[in-house]
Amino acid sequence: KEKDAYFRAAWVSSICSDFAPSADKETMKANLLKVLEYFELMNMNAIIYHVRTYNNAYYKTNKAPIDPQYGTYESFDEWDYLTWFIDECHSRGIEFHAWLNPYRIKASGYPEGTTAEDVAEDYKDYPINPASDPKNILMTSSNGAILNPGLENVQKYIIDVCLDRAKVYGLSKKGYVRTKTYGVYREKNEYKICKK
Fold first, then answer.
1. CA geometry: angle 97, 13, 26, nearest 5 deg
2. Which phi and psi angles does 138 have, rounded to 5°?
3. Which residue in 71, 82, 92, 144 has the fewest CB atoms around it within 10 Å?
4. What is the pLDDT of residues 130-157, one digit of tens each?
5. For residue 193, how many other CB atoms are within 10 A of its CB?
C-alpha cells in the first residue's frame, strides 16, 4: 500500500478531556479505542499523544512520578497500556507520535509564596529528576514552576527522557517523540525564558 503523503493528525491529551485515563485495563482499552474509532472515522493517519504533562509520566519510568490514573510502576509490568495503544494505532495505519512537555512542572496553582525548595520536596523520591534539586527550578509569575531549560543537566535529563521513550517503545522506527516548549525560546544557542 502506498504511503499517504498528507499528515492528518490531532493532539490527544487526557488533560484536555479527550479521553478518561484509567489504571483498569478494560476501561483504558475501551476509552482509547473510542479515540481510535474517531480517528478512523475522520480519516486521520497520525496521533500526537500526550505522555508527559507536568514533569510526570503516563508510562513506566523511574525518572518522574507516574500519574496514578495510568497505573503504578509495578502495574506496568502486568500490562503496559502504551505498548498496546501504539500497536493498536499501527494496526489501523495510524502513526504514533509521543508528545512530551519537557520543562513544565506545574502551569499554575501553587499557593502564593511557594518556593523552589517546596516544589523540590515533591520529587525527593526521584533523585534522577532535576526537580529534586531547587537549583534546577524556576518559579513563574503564574504561581507555577518549570525546570530551568538553560541548565545543561536539565537539558541532558530531557534528552535522556526522550531517548528512553524512543528506545522502550521503538519510536525511532514506528513513531516520533515531540516536545512542546511553552514560554521558552532559543537564541544563539542559549535558552531564554519569555517575559509576559
1. 95
2. -115, 125
3. 92
4. 999 999 999 998 999 999 999 999 999 9
5. 14
Q: Which residues contact 5 (CB under 8 A, 6 or more apart)?
A: none
Whether the predicted pLDDT of 162 surpasses 70: yes
pLDDT at 4 > cutoff 70? no
Distance CA 45, CA 5 (A): 10
Report the alpha-carbon distance of residue 188 to residue 196 in Å, rounded.
Answer: 21
Q: Which amino acid is at 160?
A: D
Region of poorest pLDDT, from 28-32, 160-164, 174-178: 174-178
Return the HEC string of 28-85: HHHHHHHHHHHHHHCCCCEEEEEEECCCCECCCCCCCCECHHHCCCCHHHHCCHHHHH
Q: C-alpha distances in angstroms, 113 versus 109, 122, 154? A: 11, 16, 24
Rounded Cα distance between 179 and 99, Å, is: 6
φ, ψ (nearest 5 deg) of residue 109: 105, -5
Q: Is the pLDDT of residue 71 over 60?
A: yes
Residue with cell 535522556: 160
> CB within 8 A of 36, min separation 6: which ones?
88, 89, 92, 94
Residue 16 has pLDDT above 70, yes or no: yes
